[in-house]
Each structure stands twice: as C-alpha cells, then as structure tokens.
Amino acid sequence: MKRAIFASALLTLAAALPASAGWEEGVAAFRASDFEKAYQQFQEYVQQNPNAYQGHYMLGEAALRVKRNDEALNHLRKAYDLNPNDLATKLSLGRAYNGNRRYKEAATLLGGIDPSALPANQKVVFYQLRATARDRSGDDSGALADFGTLTKLKPDDAQLHYRYGVGKISDGDLQGGLSALSKASSLDPKNKDIKKAYTQGVLNQARRTRDRAAKKAAYEKAARAASQLVGLDSSFDNLMLQLSAELGGGLYDAAISTGEKAVAKNGSDWKANFYLGQALTSASQFEKAEGPLNRAKGLASSKGDLDRINKQLGYAYSKQKKYVEAIAAYEAGGDSAAAQRVRDNKDTAEFNAAVEEDNARIDEMREEAERLEKELEALESGGGLR
Length: 386
Prior knowledge:
Layout: H1 2-16, H2 23-31, H3 35-48, H4 53-65, H5 69-82, H6 87-99, H7 103-111, H8 120-136, H9 140-153, H10 158-170, H11 174-187, H12 192-208, H13 212-232, H14 236-248, H15 252-265, H16 270-282, H17 286-299, H18 303-319, H19 323-332, H20 336-381
Helix pairs in contact: 2-3, 3-4, 4-5, 5-6, 6-7, 6-8, 7-8, 8-9, 9-10, 10-11, 11-12, 12-13, 12-14, 13-14, 14-15, 14-16, 15-16, 16-17, 16-18, 17-18, 18-19, 19-20
C-alpha cells in the first residue's frame, strides 16, 4: 500500500518538474528499486536545487530505504518546510518521525491532517502511521480510536483486530476487546499471541461473572480456548492458564491431568503444585492431594500463599479424619475457627467411637447372656440339673 502511494506521488512529481541533473536518473533508479543509486542522484539534484521541495522529498524517501534515517528525517522536514500543504510529504515525514522514535512529533503532525479528505488508498497508511505514533507517545484513547477505524478499513487483518482487542481490554471494555480478539483468532487461528490474549480475556471474564451458571459456562469456554492454545504451544504458562480455567469450571479430572503436566514442566513452581492439590481435593482424592500440597508449602514464601496452602491441607486432612494434622494445618494457616471445628469433630468422633464401643460391649454381654440362657435351658431339658 505504501509503495503504491509513493509511486503515485513519484509520477506526479516527475511530471511536474523540468529535467535537471540527477532527477530523471534518480527517478529511474528508484523505480528499479536501486535505492542507493537513487540516493546519490537525488543528492546531486538537491545540491543544484536546494529550494525545490520535490528534491528533498525524494532524497528523504531514498534515504529511508537505505537506512539513513536521520538524514531522511532532515530532508523530509525540509520538504515539509518548503511546502507544508503537500499531503505525501506529511505522510512520509510522519513515517520518518516514527522510524526515529519521535512519536510525539509524528502524532502532532498527523493530527493536523483531516482523514476525511484523503483518497481511499491513503487512509489505511495514514491511520496506521497515526495509530502507531499515538500509541507510542502515550495517547491511548487516540490510538484505540485509530485502530478501531483500521479494523473497518481492513476487516480481514488479524493483527489489527488483535491490537484493537488488546487496547479495548486495557481501556476497560472487556466485552469489546473479546469481540475483536475473537475475530482476530478466527482470521489467524494458529497465531499463539492472539490465542493467548483471547484466552486470558475469557478467563478474566469468567472471574468477573457473578451468576453461578454463567460463571461456570464462562470458565468452560476459557478452558476450551486454553486447550487450543496449549495445542499450539504447550509452555508452562499456557498449561497454567488451562489449569486455572479447568479448576474454575469444575473440570477436575481434566485439571488433574493438566496439573500433572504443569508440574512435570516446572516442579519448583509452588502454584502448579497447589493447583494440582486443589484439583485432587476437589475430586475427593484427598490422600493423593497431600503430596503436591506439601510440596507447594515447601516452595511458597509469602505468608498469604502459605496460609492458602495450609488451609487446603487442613481440609484434605479433615476429610480423611486426620484430626491432629488438620488442626495443625488450619492453625498454621491462621484459620482458628476451622481448627476449632475440627477439634469439635474430633471430640464428637471420639465420643461416638466410645459410645459405639460401649454399645458393642453391651451387645456382646447380651449375646453372652443369651448363650448362657440357652445352655441352661438345654441342661434343664436334658435332666442335667436337679
């Protein structure tokens, strides 16, 4: 697109200028993509015609292509000073500013252009230049607006939808961002960066959802997206995204499998072990949960993380009636109420056990009495007693 616009400007300039040393040779070299030769020819032209904006414009364009960015900027700026109303010069100068990381100046220059007056083939270039300048100079809302316009001008460009979606989410519009990221993912389904941004967005949406059924459905959607992401790139970070989504959606068997893969990738990560322990606990595999939860406790460092792990351990122990271990874990986690509940349960269990033992003894005594009674009856009926 940029080359097509330049070619149009080049033809216009070539027709407007009288023949002069270096000009025709430079134009011919530029058209042949011999930019080094074009650069040299336009240098000669500018030396002879220092006040012709066309020469500075062409020399700046040639300098850009041979990576002489500072020199390109100087000549394009000179062309702009000589003819500040030339649209092609403004666009090229904006590109040069961006190339030299002078984004604020590019944004200011391009902000003075009325895009509605641009030909259709120049609008895309303009919005791309200005969106980049605004984005890099800290004008987030302006950049977001430009990227939104670009998605309409180029609806099949996955990268534009991706950048727009990320920007919308950063701006607080999660639903709008997800819509754009979904479009980007459908256009480029094998792009890992796009798929990851979409997965993170859906997972964020699930965490924000309050309705229980809708929340579960959102987590399941995030789990499907994460599974596709892991299919593209089974990195540890991506496995952790999948594990989080599966836990949130109540997909505990799947979470156990994913958690085991994550721990295999990085067994020194406390959170991977903790999530695996959570999945096993939720699947009522309490004894198996002890291993990863204890590993997590040995790897975590912050008090908040250790408290979470100890509370989960307390629950796993209590479900197995390991009351002493459960009480110690809950107390280590700062949950005195849960520790007291376990003590009460322990006392109740011990009381019930004692009652059951007494009942069993009573039953034994009753059975013994009945046995003796039958023996006595047998002796009496047999004449054994007189």
